[in-house]
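Lecture 7 notes: from sequence to structure.

We start with a single chain of 450 residues. Read the sequence below before looking at the structure.
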Amino acid sequence: MAVKHTILIADDEKNTREGLKWALERQNLTIFLAADGEEALRIIRTQRVDILITDLRMPKLDGMGLLARVREESPSTSVVILTGHGTVESAVDAMKRGAFDYLIKPVNIDELNMLVDRILSTRALVDENAQLRESLDSRYGFENIIGKSEAMMNVFAKVRTVAPSRANVLLYGESGTGKELIANAIHQHSPRKHKPMVKVNCGALPLTLLESELFGHEKGAFTGAVRTREGRFEIADGGTIFLDEISETAPEFQVKLLRVLQEGEFERVGGTQTLRTDVRVIAASNKRLDDLVREGKFREDLYYRLKVVEIDLPPLRERREDIPLLVDYFLEEASRYYGKPKPSVHPRAMTALQNFHWPGNVRQLKNVIEGAIVMTNGELNLQALPQEISGQTGPAAYVQIPVTATLREAEKELITAALIANGNNRAKTARSLGLGRKTLYRKIEEYGIQ
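Now the structure, written as tokens:
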């Protein structure tokens, strides 16, 4: 279906208004008419107007006055000025004040339609870019960083505070805690959001390749350098660069990185020309850099340059109250991807998910839910979960019981969790709880535990 656009024609000459309307009438256009500037302004205040075509000379409010009011009250409206040969200079002045273009009376119909098509094409591109930015905001905004725990609320607060600044940020967190997602959110909520966000995994590249990747290289700088190549710092100019696993970089590389952070200068590998860049650095590590500094494995001066602001991302085992929210989100996402109805989650399966220690953190949970969706039709139960989750053992298995729970409720939860942790082996569960078998069987029946 074609997008419907709106044009407003303002002219005190009825024949001009009607003639322009006749010339522009087509299926995807709605056309309004106004006999003076004030009437035109009233229409703009009540209707979305894509294009205003206005005469310069009109009673009550002339074209220049109307242009000024429209720029103030409806800045998305494109304004075209109609002028006679004697007032072309005024029309040019109107363009300097924000008009899109002007047409000389008597108006050439082909020229009019070409101008309208050009404006609508430009608007379509602007709208498309706006939708793309909105999509990026949604993808990298806080909406998809799931959590209501106090630990995540603290992370959100720090991101909101630091994002608008120029400060470099150092992210700490275990693998799978979402460091890249937080880096994206910082960039997307910063003044640099319309510039590139460039990502480099420093731990995945040897020293020579890492230098070439970040700083670029000149043709012939090394074997295989058949052409000059821009580095990531050049590409990210004006934007943000995300350096993951910064702790894995070599000392000789750290010296060059320090210079970029201090001076904003570098040379390509094999080059002599000094290049400049304005880049915000967000670095991430699953190791504490201050520990590496004390061990002599990381430069202290670089450490302080990177850690203007530090944000610690909690592991999933320290924010178990977020697991039901994450499970629901990943179920929605995976169900949509695989074209299956979103299943409900059996309470025992949810308990198992909350009790697991999640060494791979949120990334591991996402993969588990995706696998469960593939194996499930209807309810997601214990059988759909991996054995290490549905029947885990060891000290990592524990249950959270609210202080408002009654002793009966607490005992039921504890027995249920112990059964899950022991793979539903009742003899083993009785021993782990310090109960006789008959006592355990009686309580299972009494509490209706399946």
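The chain has 19 helices and 14 strands. Keep this in mind for problem set 3.
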